[in-house]
Design a protein that fits this description.
- The chain is an alpha/beta fold and 339 residues long.
- The protein has two domains: 12-160, Murein tetrapeptidase LD-carboxypeptidase, N-terminal domain (Rossmann fold, 3-Layer(aba) Sandwich), CATH 3.40.50; 168-337, Glucose Oxidase, domain 1 (3-Layer(bba) Sandwich), CATH 3.50.30.
- The chain contains nine helices and 16 strands.
- The strands form three sheets. Strands 6-16-15-10-11-12-13-9 form an eight-stranded mixed sheet. Strands 2-1-3-4-5-14 form a six-stranded mixed sheet, with helices on both faces. It has a two-stranded antiparallel ribbon with strand order 7-8.
- α8 packs parallel to α9.
- The protein is globular.
- It starts with 11 loop residues before the first strand and ends with a strand.
Length: 339
């Protein structure tokens, strides 16, 4: 696994829009505020041409988005690449990425969440380059950084390799409680992690995952190299971290079933599941039922209710690193080893 260099003062950050672009209120406000904060800390930016706007659920055509992402990643004067937004149709760029060029390039961090799973997955599973499943640039625009955003900043600057579970989280329906786009999260609900068998958990393995919505679309295509990746790192084992955005609880049920029966979990040493954004109970099925029915026979530790994904605050995951996850009494920590 290749690990890029973390950000240093005076480094240049390349901004890309491989899915949505920055479009209107409140996204433009968050974007400009985030840029200002990073520039005040000594960083500079290079923008892809098609960074702003959304048309037909895209910032630009698939070819253009792939080309701009490749160009930014390969630029010698860019030290770190970050997505400005999530979105819906980033999968379209996969056929137009030059995987061999990415493999041979000077490794650099790419960071993004949600639809950006497409590229964090590609770099790590197809190219053996670690990536960062973490906030897009606009999340750094809040006036007073949430603890999770502070930790994300510390991670990308190489100052942190461990995170602990947070105290409270924000309900999806409360995400727009304020008209102030820079106000931050409105957290009301206690964070409680759970283990599937009710016991304390310690799991260790190479971290792979992201947004289940996207991973299910990759599964079974020519870009699906998870089994080969698992075999390569068999001695390390694989921890899958998963979260869901639009999928309801029964979609998640079917999705976990699909990954299991596509042999994605063959070398799995544990699974950690984030709080689904749209995963409320349906027909007496909840997330515990989903995980128990699909994963119990694998005899691996499973932790759920995690600070991962679309229900903030969220951990910033170093995709491809060796992760150690420890759970006890509703609390959890994750630690990254870069080897």
């Amino acid at each position: 696994m290749k690990y890029p260099e973390f950000l240093k003062k005076n480094d240049t950050i390349g901004l890309v829009a491989p899915s949505f672009g920055v479009s209107g209120f409140p996204y433009e406000d968050k974007y400009l505020s985030a840029r200002e904060k990073f520039e005040d800390s000594g960083f500079s930016f290079v923008e892809a041409k098609h960074l702003r706007g959304i048309r037909h659920a895209r910032s630009a055509s698939a070819r253009i988005r792939a080309r701009e992402l490749m160009e930014m990643y390969l630029r010698e004067d860019v030290d770190f690449v970050e997505s400005v937004a999530g979105g819906e149709l980033m999968l379209e760029i996969l056929p137009y990425l030059n995987i061999e060029k990415l493999r041979k390039a000077r490794p650099k961090w790419f960071m993004g969440i949600s639809d950006n799973t497409v590229f964090t997955y590609t770099l790590t599973v197809l190219c053996d380059i670690a990536s960062i499943y973490g906030p897009c640039l606009g999340s750094f625009g809040m006036r007073k950084w949430d603890k999770s955003i502070k930790e994300a900043y510390e991670i990308i600057n190489g100052q942190r390799l461990k995170q602990k579970s947070y105290a409270k989280y924000e309900l999806p329906e409360n995400s727009k409680m304020s008209d102030d786009p820079l106000s931050g999260y409105y957290k009301t609900e206690p964070v409680v992690y759970h283990s599937l068998d009710g016991n304390d958990v310690t799991m260790k393995g190479r971290l792979v995952g992201g947004c289940l919505d996207i991973l299910l679309n990759i599964c079974g295509t020519r870009f699906d190299r998870v089994r080969e990746f698992g075999e390569k790192y068999r001695d390390d084992g694989i921890i899958f971290y998963l979260e869901a955005c639009d999928l309801n609880i029964l979609d998640i049920y079917r999705g976990i079933w699909q990954l299991k029966n596509a042999s994605w979990f063959d070398n799995c040493t544990g699974i950690i599941m984030g709080r689904p954004r749209n995963g409320g109970e349906m027909f007496d099925v909840d997330i515990k039922e989903v995980l128990k029915n699909n994963l119990k026979d694998l005899n691996i530790p499973v932790v759920y209710g995690a600070n991962i994904g679309h229900v903030p605050p969220s951990w910033t995951i170093i995709n491809g690193s060796i992760g150690t996850v420890r759970y006890k009494n509703g609390k959890c920590s994750i630690e990254y080893e870069l080897r």
